[in-house]
Amino acid sequence: MNNRLYIGVYVVVAICVSIFVKPYAPWICLLGALALLYVLRAKNSLRQPPIPKELPRDHAYLSVLDSLFEHNPNAIGIFNDEGKFIRMNQAVESILGYSVTDLMHQPFTGIVTEEQLETTEWQLQQSRNGIPYTFDTSVLHQRGYRVDLHVTAVPVDIHHHSKGNILICQDITERKRGDEQVRYMAYYDDMTGLPNRRLFKDRLDERLRLCKVEGHKVAVFYLDIDRFKLVNDSFGHDYGNMLLLQLAERFTRCLTAEDFLARTEGDEFAFYYSNVEDVNDVMTVIAEINRVLEKPFLLEQYELHVTASIGVAISSEDTGEADELMKYADIALARAKEKGRNDFQIFNSDMKSVSINRLRLENELRRALVNEEFVLYYQPQVDIGSGRIVGVEALIRWNHPDKGMVMPNHFIPLAEESGLIVPIGEWVLRAACKQNKTWQSEGYAPIPISVNLSMRQFFQHNLKGKIRHVLEQTELDPQYLELEITESMTMDVDHAIQSLLELKELGVNVSIDDFGTGYSSLYYLKKFPIDKLKIDRSFVRDIMVDPNDAAIVATIIAMTHHLNLKVIAEGVETEDQLKFLYQNRCNEVQGYWFSPPVDRLELEHMLRYGISVAAASRE
Asked: Residue 49 burial (CB < 10 Å; 0-12/13-18/19+)?
């Protein structure tokens, strides 16, 4: 109101001056305006109170602090010197599930999980002693599940002689679960739930250090399931995974609290056992492993028996880190598989050179393919009634530049493991068809040539197209090619029937080799589009001394005739064996009684003059 009065006076004075004192009116008005401004400023400065040096702790100030406390997204609690809640914000209830009534005057440690209790009590005490502390802990939610917290504990004076603390708790449960999931993926096999190779190595390093201090030994066992690929190829990977899950469960029965099990890759498992001192202890462990494998595995409607090859390495004073012991166990495993599977080997220093030789052999096999060092030998198949050669089986040999002629048992197992068996098998197929066509072109009587198909070849994509291409390249009539498969290849019945039908569409002949040693069902056998069964040499060898083998061979021959198939017996080495087979109406025979596998020139001599003349000339 006073300001308006001053302004009104100024306006009246200005009007009067402008009317009565015209020459000086602008200057008088300007001076009046300045005077009016000075008066107004002086008046306002007198009214404004002085600025205090610090804000008073009034109601508004405390209201701001309360808002920050109550609406903070983190759970905040204030605790007295006994560590009990005396105040908490709303986030405590939303994060922990407890109401204010539930927690008031209760200790924070009352909801801490058991495994974190001792550590958390110590950390809270540090805070009450005046040391701010940050730590992770876990508590139990009101509903019973675990909540992970990142806690900042700050000391605070409650009263003049009473100290407490404030806990600011951030919920890190989701982050912790994410970290645990990443760690699980890094250290565990996602299918079986067992530790993986990385975790196995870390734990083995720890165990080795501990055992060196205590003076004990550690034994590492590498275990590989025999012919596991056959299960995958025959039944599919879902069945293979079912088998791996059952294996993992059974292997856990072989462990004590001091031992460890992992799935390292594929069908390979790794164990380490503490306090294994010598071969006797190793034998005890292997016996236990074999015991849990004795009972057949059930894969839905299928019942499967499983064996394993095992490599063992025992630590010594010179053993370094886990990698070294694991490498030795792997070398021993490879040695066990070389010896025919369902076996075990304990690592020794001589095996190092064997492992190096395997690598060298694989490289030499690759070179042999490029340099065409492989050759074919041929074993005649003879009609048991007339004694005429009615077919030949093509058998591979390796004409090594340094070692001379190498038999297939020295390189075929490695070729199968490395996958080289596929290109080697394709070479055999092409070379056999080409040679048979050459014999026919030279005027020899046309006879079929038998070629063994490997497991990998039989299950490869477009087998029919590959064989058709070879036949077209060599211009061999399909009826003069016979493909031999083993019984084990027919375990996947649907795939076997489909593949065999496709091969028969080409016009080639198909026989089942080593019959009697596999798992063929007689029910499915009649459905297979095959032409011939080949009785395995293991039965023929003992037909004159073992009545059981004699009965088996006679039964196979009779059954084959009822199925309108031909039957051939391999491994015939004596005249008595030949007579037995003749009396039981076996169609064809093959074996050293007539001829061992021979090279091309010698077989041509037989084809020209007959087996008996050729045999006499060899003698």
From this structure: exposed
